[in-house]
Amino acid sequence: MNIINGGICAPKGFLASATAANIKYKNRTDMAMIFSKVPAISAGTYTTNLVKAAPVLWDRNITDSEVEVNAIVINSGIANACTKDEGMEYCKQSANKAAMELLVDENSVLLASTGVIGMQLPIDRICNGIESLSKSLEQSERAANEAAKAIMTTDTVSKEVAIEFEISGKTVKMGGMCKGSGMIHPNMCTMLGFITTDINISKELLLKAIREDVVDTFNMVSVDGDTSTNDSLIILANGLAENVKIVDENSDEYKVFKINLNFVTTTLSKMIAGDGEGATALFEVVVDGAKTKETARTLAKSVVTSSLTKAAIFGHDANWGRILCALGYSGEKFDPDNMELYFESENGKILIYKDGVSVGFDEDVATKILSAKEVRALVKLHMGEFSATAWGCDLTFDYVKINADYRS
C-alpha cells in the first residue's frame, strides 16, 4: 500500500468540485460535489440518534437498495435536521436539480448536510450551488482539496487521504475526506465521511466491510460525547480498476481490501479527533489484554470520553486517578490490582500505575510526555488477548467559547 495524493479524486472516474453558495458562511466555499463518471455501488452507515436529519433518511433509502449512485451533494452551514416534511421536500428538489444538471436519475444522487440544526435550507441558494458544482467538476488533486475544505464547519483543517494497492494484479485506488470537530461521538459527529474507490466488488461485501470497519474506527472517536443527527459515512465503488470482482468474503482479495479500507478510516478518524473543537492535543487510549474485544472497546471509550481526564490532558497533568475512575465506572470487569497504566508520546514513555498503586513516577518527566501534540494512555489488563483503541482530544477553554455562540 502506498499513500498518494488526490484525495477523493485519486480513484479512476471520480471528480469533485466546490462552490460558495452563501448558505450560512460568508467569503468561503460551503458546498461540494463528488461525481462518478460511471454508476457506482454504494454503502453507508449512519447516526443511531433517534432524531435523524432529512439527508440521512434520503441516503439510507438509496444505499440500502440496489440503486447505483452517480453523485453526492454536500452542504455545510445548515444541517437540514428537525425540518420535517419541508426538509425532505428540499432533499427531493436538490436531488432533482443535480439529476437535471448531470443527466442522471434523481435516485442516484446522495445528499449530506452539516451545520445548525432546526433551520430550513435556502433551497434557491442550494440549487444555484448545485448548478455551479455541476459545471466545475474536475478530477484533480486541487478539486479534491477544495471539496474537503467546503464541507468544514468548525473544523480548523481539511481532512483527506488517498492510497493505492494491488488486487488480483490490478492497481486499486481509494480516497477519502471527512469533516468533524464538534458534536463528535459517532455510533454508526457532526461527522460526515466520504470514501471513493475504483475497486470492483459486490454490493453485499462493500456494505459488510464498511459496517464492520466502523466499529473500530469512527465509532471509537469522541470529542464531546454528543452523537449528531447527521452522522454519515458513505463509500462509493465504481469498478474502474477492472480487477476480478470480489464476491467471496473468505478470499485474500477481500482481506486486502478490508486492510486498506481500515487504513483510510483510521487515518480520517484520528484527523477528526485531533481537530476537536478547541483541542491542543490528540488523545489516544489503548486498552490491551482484555477478555473480549467489546470489553476493550468499552474501557477505552470510557477513558477517552471522561471530561476530567480530557481536562487533565489539557493541563499536561498526569492525574492517573481520573483514568482509573473512568475504567471503573465503564461497567466492565477488570482487576485494578493486576494492571498497568503508562503515558507515552514522542517525548517518551513512563509507567504511572502498577498492581493497585502509583509507582512513584517523576512528575516532570510525565508532564513533558503529556505536552506533546499526540498523547497516548496505555492500559495493560493481563486478562486476555483482545485490545482496542479510542481517539479523542483534550478539553480546553476554547471548546466552551466555540459552542457558546455556535449559531451566531
UniProtKB/TrEMBL annotation:
It is an enzyme of class 2 (transferase). Its EC number is 2.3.1.35, 2.3.1.1. One of its GO terms (cellular component) is cytoplasm. The keyword Amino-acid biosynthesis applies. The keyword Transferase applies. It is found in: Cytoplasm. PANTHER family: ARGININE BIOSYNTHESIS BIFUNCTIONAL PROTEIN ARGJ (PTHR23100), ARGININE BIOSYNTHESIS BIFUNCTIONAL PROTEIN ARGJ, MITOCHONDRIAL (PTHR23100:SF0). Heterotetramer of two alpha and two beta chains. NCBIfam families: ArgJ, PRK05388.1. HAMAP family: ArgJ (MF_01106). This is Arginine biosynthesis bifunctional protein ArgJ. The gene is argJ.
